Amino acid sequence: MKVLINFEVTKGYEQWKSVVKEHEAKIEGLGVKIIWLGAEKNNPKKVHVCFECESLEKLEENMKRPEIAALREPAGRIEESTVVIPLVD
């Protein structure tokens, strides 16, 4: 299934993206493939990511893993701004 997630970051899109790209293999190793990522043109602190994964539950489970959760601070992700949208193909 595909899931669209958006959230805000404190350190800007480029900082967030560099952290994600550095750890992309680890993320994908959990069965979560990054399909697309980007920031809004007029608001580079608003990030959108489309993932492909087995299920929404599996995605949420993997995103709670300590090694993945630890990436959020250096990336500047504001957790409470997160919106998760399951998609239909």
Gyration radius, to the nearest Å?
A: 12 Å
Q: Which structural class do you get from the secondary structure elements?
A: alpha+beta
Strand order of the largest sheet: 2-3-1-4
Indicate the proportion of strand residues.
35-45%
Number of DSSP helices?
Answer: 5
Portion of residues within helices: 25-40%
Tally the beta strands. Answer: 4
Assign the CATH architecture. 2-Layer Sandwich
What is the makeup of the main sheet?
4 strands, antiparallel
What is the element string, with H for helices and E for strands? EHHEEHHHE
Averaging pLDDT over every residue, what do you get?
A: 91
User: What is the CATH class designation?
Assistant: Alpha Beta
Shape: globular
Counted up, domains total 1
CATH topology, by name, is Alpha-Beta Plaits
Q: What separation lies between the terminal Cα atoms?
A: 8 Å
Topology diagram in text:
Blueprint: E1 2-9, H1 13-22, H2 24-28, E2 33-40, E3 43-52, H3 56-63, H4 66-69, H5 72-75, E4 77-87
Antiparallel strand pairs: 1-3, 1-4, 2-3
Question: Any key phrases for this structure?
Answer:
4-stranded antiparallel β-sheet, Alpha-Beta Plaits, 4 strands, alpha+beta, 5 helices, single chain, 89 residues
